[in-house]
Amino acid sequence: MNHLSLRNQPAQTAAAKARTFPSTPNPDDAARRRADKNVRLPLLALLLGAGLLVGASLPAADGITNIRASQRPGTNLVDIRYDLGTINTEGLIVAVAVSTNGGLAYDLPATHFTGDVGFGVTAGTNKWVVWDAVRDWPDGFSTNVFFRITASDVAQGMALIPAGSFTMGNCMDPGEGDGDELPLHSVDVSAFYMDRYEVTKALWDEVYQWATNHGYSFEYGAQGKAANHPAHSITWYDAVKWCNARSEKEGRVPAYYTSAAQTAVYRTWQINVQNDWVKWTNGYRLPTEAEWEKAARGGVAGHRFPWSDTDKIQHSRANYYSTYSTSEYVYDSSPTPGYHPMFFNGVEPYSSPVGYFAANGYGLYDMAGNMWEWCWDWYSSGYYRGSPRRGPANNGAVAGARHCG
Q: Domains of the chain (ranges plus CATH)?
């Protein structure tokens, strides 16, 4: 039922744990290290390409300083520049919010930003963000446009997955695996962060307890063999609601809503959340199929598993059911057939503690074996023939369906 992009044999219990992504915290959360700056932009007939009169630079503050902006003559593009100071070598999460009423509310649903925005923005001067205003604000006009830029640290336990394109699909023998893993195609994915570990039963329970006391309901919840083992047997709906609860618990803006208006947070019942009901750059969320596979590959291409020194698998590398004795999979060379002897104790599921095996090149653990993992996309046997070539942070939506292998 749940998804594992790499087609090795996982332990025989489906997991729906949500490796999730953080985004911009609540700007009122002073406990997080962040800078919050506003720039007033009297916008003169944006759609006609008139110029922007930029207010004076704001006083210096820790993090973000020297914000300035201008509209490109004859276009609907707005250039926003700023300086960022941080000692965090992995970078910060930078977000831009837009107000069209003089800063009373930053409620314009603006998402079409490119450049030095999003995850992994490092220190430097003259950072550059481009806003394609007409895509977020068609027919818009205001003389009181404000921008707010926030920069925040990454949540602990996250690994940066850098932006870039990768080849998606079964890159080995075309006769190997299933037809729904082909054709090979290039996908451009924006940078994002992912949990280094599968969501443990302890973390699930912590968020679950908070959620059920704050208006959330879950149909089934989750199981787990031990506190440091992955949570499993979770429905997609409960996983999505849990992501929202984790966001709200930490003071972040949730990702999932009950309609395209994106006003009512998804907290109850089983709702088929659609692509345009998602704030893709906010809160914790499930990875798309492409994001998951890019992350699983660990920065290397042309290999079957998350490691690059061999294209074979053994119990020394992952917790899975080995079929070496039957030669069902030629790449399975484990000297110990069947379930992993370390975890085959007669009590199902035969899961292993998170992080038991070595991480991949991005610092992610258990991207092969242990438990299956939920993704966002719907499943379709022809998904790879028409799946989007750009990730959600680039185009604001993901076409197709929720993909579970």
A: 1-22+155-405 (3.90.1580), 34-152 (no CATH)
